[in-house]
Amino acid sequence: MFEHVLSVMIFLPIVAGLILLLTPAGKGIARLTGLVISFASLILGLDIFFKFKEQAALQFVENVAWIPAWGINYHLGLDGISLFVLLAGAILLPMVYILFSTKEKGYYANLLIVQGAMAGALCAADMVLFYIFWEIMLLPIFFMLGLYGGENRIKATLKITIYTIAGSLLMLASIIYVGVTYHAQFGEWNFAISQMSQLQLAGPVAVLAFFGFMIAFAIKIPLFPFHTWLPDAYTEAPTATTFVLSAIMAKIGVYAVIRFVVPVFDGEFARFALLLAYSGVIGMMYCGITAIAQKDIKRMLAFSSASHMGIIALGVFCLNVQALTGSIYQIVAHATSTGVLFLFVGIIEDKMKTRQIKDLGGIAYKAPVFAFFFAVAMLASVGLPGTSGFIGEFLIILGAIKFNVVIGVLAGTTLIIGVCYMLWMFQRVFFEKTNDRTEGFTDLSIKEGLTFLPVIVLIVVMGLYPQPFLSKIEPAAQQLIASVTKADSMQIAQSTHAQQSDGHTVEKKN
Amino acid sequence: MEHNVTFLGYIPLLPLIGAAVLGFLHIGTCNRKPLNEKLYGLIACVGPVLAFVLALRVFLTLKGMPEEARYLSQKAFTWFQVGELDITMGFLADPLSSLMLVFVTLIGSLIHIYSIGYMEGDKNIGKFFAYLNLFVGSMLILVLGDNPVVMFVGWEGVGLCSYLLISFYSEETNNVLAGNKAFIVNRIGDLGFVLGMAFLFWAIGAGGFDFFSLKANAHSLTPGIALAVCLLLFVGATGKSAQIPLYVWLPDAMAGPTPVSALIHAATMVTAGVYMVARFSFIYAHVPVAGEIVAWIGILTALLAAIFAMFQDDIKKILAYSTVSQLGYMFAGVGVAAYSAGIFHVFTHAFFKALLFLGAGAIIYAMHHEQNIWKMGGLKNKMPKTYITMLIGALALAGCPPFAGFFSKDEILFSTLATGHYGIWAIGVLVAGMTAFYTFRMIFVVFHGEPRDQEAYDHCHEAPAVMTVPLIILAVGALFAGFLNLPAIFGGNQLVSHWLAPSLVEHHPHVSIFIEIIAIGASVAAFVVGIRIAYKRFAVGAEEPQFSGFCKFAYHKFYIDELYDGVFVQPYKKIGNAIRKTIEPSVTDAPVTLASKLYMVIGTAFKVFQVGYVRVYAIYMIVGLSLMSLLLSQSLN
């Protein structure tokens, strides 16, 4: 089993989800199945984490020919970058089944399928395989949003569908282009990601293909100005879906940029990095400023999430190891802070039957444990030192300054923009006076408290002792940066002296 | 040079553990059966007092070492390391941080003890002490951090505690708004700090980012980068230490409980900016332009805040503006590269300002939360201990020889004169006079004359011993702390300056004794004039004044808060609202709406052809077939 641990991580949830959908199982069975399987995935995920070696190469590889005529393989593997996104999902998803216990069968079944498909997208080392998982992972989201969403769910579903299908088509065209080019240059069909970095891509079609990939991923992340599906979808979707979208799926967009765009289109990426970086910081500022005007907490968090994603994406565009490592670290940090905040809002909504900020107030006096947990997640989200949010944000700002001073300074404003909307929301929801509605707010139950406690502890541990995580990310990040700057990756990974020259080449390119 | 010790880390850790225990107890019990208040007070005092004992041990250890080798450090663990960036969770005790350490823990402990009395009966006393412990722990991290990033942990940590404690009485919207303001304004400064660190790192950080390595590599900074780093870090300092243009949060911060105002918003946290500039003296000393800017911002802040303080009627607001003003002096000192003078003023100011705040707290406590000085009067008979201790504090603040404030302020003013900054010196002397005036305006109105509110006066009583004993200890400090750095002209040998010398990069200008006498003479004269005017106008029977003209303008603090609100806050909210209402639905969302509309249009267009009659489809077929055969025949030819 442990030779195929990635396959198990992928197909165990998908198969379970399908069986649930096809059999007349009840809600209780469905939830129990979800709980057991998500815990199994968590254990497998932790096992993978501890067995993971601190090196750049893919690990836990499985490679079986699938469609040999086209060179398409069932090829899986993990590196330091995908490991953390996978782990974030494995750690966070069991919470959903514990916290939300009274949903429909389809709700739990779709969650299982999306969990498996996301694992598939993260582990795929073959572009076609990746594309298939990428598409599968969206289907359950459409169903959950369309079936179990809020009042305006149809409009939101339509919007996200238009966006993601447009993105997927562009990506498919780009994948085909890359495959055909490989065939032209090397005389054989191959879609393995590791081989694509040998391609010599140039000319206007390559630029088009680059943007084909970039736009598909930019929609998913979402990067400004492709973000407009997000507030509607995040707001209308049921809590678990929003949680999955914000905590994990958005990150797969960033991951995909790192995995596909950076090594394959290194030339184009370096050429357009500044443009993309501006898109990241402008999106961060735009969504952050918009967040302050929102009246619905969930919608505010949706904009906040989009704002943070701008900064995370920026870290990838800065082309240096600090920013890239910071980005990957921030992916997990953001999942534990903003993702958990969405769950908290789900709890508020369940208890108070409203998400309107003006209808709330004084919750802190009624529910001190809840308020404390919320505050910790909120402080992590604004990047307070000592929480997980600081490390990633600091590394990204540091790297951004090296990349481009203007970008760096603009990125730094996230320190201010974040606290503005968060504190004002916290004031109106948790402080001030209670009203008739919030007077009846009950604190977290022991079960709920124990569900959140590990994540709250993780937020602090990741803030105070991030090195075990960083040392697993860094080799992959080093290799990636080296591949973009076309320097000798072996040397770079070992000597800090070489890194400085590496940094200089980056600056010259821009 | 480096001397590794393992107990440095415990100094911040002890109060932090206290905070965790208190927080846990409070959250666990607050909505059930509350615990005994005394228990909270007792637990709360353990951390700071033990930290004080350890701080003394550090101080004495350093004292026992040869002067050039006074350097203790502890590298607890690698915090984060990416590429050439290598940040250690490390602590450093040298003469500078050990001095800060001793007085932060001493004053922190005293204020914890005082709070047992002041916060009696508050149902959130557990939360209060948890925050207070968290604050002391953060402040100690700030002081002990051996690299800028660890320092920044404390720097933001104290900002968080400040926010939590300002909005402590969180049912009142205004208190929470004051807390938000403090956090956000501090964050604006913190952006400067972060950017300063980033520039510094890319310039010389590859050789190690701890203060020791940075100091060794500082010579290779280019002048441009050095200036940028200095100014960006100073932006951080203006936020934390309430200088122009970011001073606006501090007066509002008085919404918090009074012990907090004493500990955080007077004695310790707000001086962090001065400490930071002194800590980075190895860069500032090489960039005179940056120092010049720091000094001018400082002295102008001192002047502005002194003007405001002369017209306030809330006792805590008077003290708050006086804090801003005194912080301005400190920056004037470190700006003209008299780092030890600046730090010495931090040290003495901590005693007399904490004393004044705690005294004010005793009055507010006795007057049932009345803070308007025009409702007080004649209190010296009712509260003799508070009166005498506050009088000592006031004399120290006003710069009366031989109280603590006189020596430290004089040291700064002398330094400005000695380095040829005559403009700064002249303003400084003017501010000294104003300080004497507003301080004694407060003393005379509150303690002298006739009671203005007879009923409140009758119910008024001296504070309990748990509050007056800390007052007395602080008064002793306000009386004698100045002698620690007695200059040669008074027969001393500047113990503090010599103690600090190994940590700082400064050189003392040698000037004639004549200049020294001018500086001292001017300070004393300013004090006498200021106190004399205050005596004439307020000693007996002063009535609450009605302000007009400039006084009204100053009473409203030049409407700067309103200006900021109109220029920054409201437009920011308006932009947010405009995006929500207009830009988001009709601009950024336009392509999607357009796409779906386009589908509809195309669909409608094609609907025309789908008529549903077989004969029409037959015609389509014939047309299509003939076109196809035409094409085929052409291509075959």
Description:
The complex is a heterodimer of chains A (510) and B (637). The termini of chain A are far apart. Helices cover 76% and strands 3% of the residues of chain A. Chain A has a two-stranded antiparallel sheet. Chain A has helices at residues 5-22, 27-51, 80-99, 105-123, 127-148, 153-186, 193-196, 204-220, 229-236, 239-264, 266-292, 297-317, 321-352, 363-366, 368-381, 388-403, 405-412, 414-430, 446-464, 467-484, 489-494, 496-509, and strands at 59-67, 72-78. Chain A folds into 2 domains: 1-264, no CATH class; 266-510, no CATH class. Chain A is mostly helical. In chain A, helix 13 (321-352) packs antiparallel against helix 19 and helix 13 (321-352) crosses helix 20 (467-484). Chain B is mainly α and 637 residues long. Among the domains of chain B are: 1-193 and 253-265, no CATH class; 295-334 and 348-544, no CATH class. Chain B is 71% helix and 3% strand. Chain B has helices at 10-29, 37-63, 95-118, 125-144, 148-166, 173-204, 211-217, 223-240, 249-252, 258-267, 272-279, 281-284, 288-309, 315-335, 339-366, 384-398, 404-418, 422-447, 454-459, 465-480, 495-500, 513-538, 550-555, 560-588, 590-607, 614-636; strands at 3-4, 72-82, 85-93. Chain B has a 3-stranded mixed β-sheet. In chain B, helix 1 packs antiparallel against helix 4 and helix 8 runs antiparallel to helix 11. The radius of gyration of chain B is 31 Å and the shape is globular. The N and C termini of chain B lie far apart (96 Å). Chains A and B meet through helix 6, helix 11, helix 13, helix 15 and helix 16 of A and helix 1, strand 2, helix 5, helix 6 and helix 24 of B.
The outline of chain A comes out as globular
State the order of secondary-structure elements of chain A, H for helix, E for strand: HHEEHHHHHHHHHHHHHHHHHHHH
Secondary structure tally: strands of chain A? 2
Q: How many discrete domains of chain A? A: 2
Reported for the largest beta sheet of chain B, the result is: 3 strands, mixed
Class per helix and strand makeup of chain A: mainly alpha
